């Protein structure tokens, strides 16, 4: 599964060169794209196991939830507090709250 995805990803990466030189047709490129999407979807359930096997360093993952220290809640809180506008309502909040506001 991973080797198939990698091979198709390489084809997709160099699709313009391969089409210019007549190696792949536009229809084949479209099939390659669809297969990359399907294989990626098939790998979603295995993503945690793949990450564990590859064991990338924490700075690569950049995830409070996947940090190797195990301090999930501390890191999640720190990440939230560092996010700009974390204590502001979302820009779309009025779409959900305006019709429920009191008319007093």
Spatial shape: flat
- What is the terminal-to-terminal distance? 61 Å
The gyration radius over C-alpha positions equals 22 Å
| Proportion in helices | 55-70%
Supply the number of helical segments: 7
H and E order: HHHHHHH
Strand content bin: under 5%
**Strand-pairing-aware structural class:** mainly alpha
What can you see in these coordinates?
The structure is a single chain. The chain is mainly alpha-helical and 104 residues long. It has seven helices and no strands. It has helices at 2-13, 15-20, 26-43, 47-54, 58-61, 72-82, 93-97. Helix 1 (2-13) runs antiparallel to helix 3 (26-43). The protein is flat and about 70 Å long. The model has no long low-confidence stretch (mean pLDDT 83).
Describe this protein with a few key phrases:
104 residues; mainly alpha
In short:
The chain contains seven helices and no strands.
Q: What are the SSEs and their pairings?
A:
Elements: H1 2-13, H2 15-20, H3 26-43, H4 47-54, H5 58-61, H6 72-82, H7 93-97
């Amino acid at each position: 599964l991973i080797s198939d995805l990698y091979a198709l990803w390489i084809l997709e990466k160099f699709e313009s060169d391969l089409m210019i030189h007549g190696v792949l047709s536009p229809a084949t490129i479209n099939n390659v794209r669809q297969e990359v999407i399907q294989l990626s979807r098939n790998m979603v359930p295995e993503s945690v196991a793949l990450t564990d096997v590859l064991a990338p360093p924490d700075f690569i993952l950049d995830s409070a939830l996947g940090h190797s220290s195990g301090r999930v809640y501390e890191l999640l809180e720190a990440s939230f507090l560092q996010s700009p506008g974390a204590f502001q309502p979302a820009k779309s909040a009025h779409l959900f709250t305006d019709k429920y506001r009191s008319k007093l």
